[in-house]
Amino acid sequence: xxxxxxxxxxxxxxxxxxxxxxxxxxxxxxxxxxxxxxxxxxxxxxxxxxxxxxxxxxxxxxxxxxxxxxxxxxxxxxxxxxxxxxxxxxxxxxxxxxxxxxxxxxxxxxxxxxxxxxxxxxxxxxxxxxxxxxxxxxxxxxxxxxxxxxxxxxxxxxxxxxxxxxxxxxxxxxxxxxxxxxxxxxxxxxxxxxxxxx
Length: 198
What we know:
The protein is an alpha/beta fold. It has one domain (19-195): Uracil-DNA Glycosylase, subunit E, CATH 3.40.470. Helices cover 29% and strands 12% of the residues. The protein is built from five helices and seven strands; from the N terminus they run βββαααβαβαββ. The protein has helices spanning 48-51, 61-72, 81-91, 124-143, 155-165; strands at residues 19-22, 32-33, 36-37, 105-106, 149-153, 180-182, 191-195. The strands form two sheets. A five-stranded mixed beta sheet has the order 4-1-5-7-6. A two-stranded antiparallel ribbon has the order 2-3. A hairpin with an 8-residue loop joins strand 6 (180-182) and strand 7. The radius of gyration is 16 Å and the shape is globular. Residues 171-190 have low confidence and may be disordered.
């Protein structure tokens, strides 16, 4: 994990969204460029430095509220469009949008922590540890949200979600496949749309 980076529970407002796209974890570019922390107007999320604390154990309620507000307001500021615009093109087919004033779409990740190196370059045991630490939080956030449609973004997300939710999902090898399934247990109120890219 990037030690100075806050957890990103969601890009956008999970409390208002009816559609959520699910990714693996926040990109390091949300917090840094070429290994240097983003500062000033370029900063997208709070960090230890911007909050004026030395360690996350020092975080108080006001710091948590600042983090949550930065998540809710993400698409109203300067989001990482290079990544989110292609996903926006997909979900616009449902008349939802990350960028809408209605905030009817959002993007949580399986793991809310940005990593450097990127998650795919971490050891399998480190990846598994991150997923284990975050899985219950994601389930609770989704269960308490108004989200009705969850879009799984990519094959790695698809596979990790199957493990996390203990849900066998049909996987079709296609540029974009749409598979809708009813989900048991903590995900039982969601419909799943699997977006699997080559």
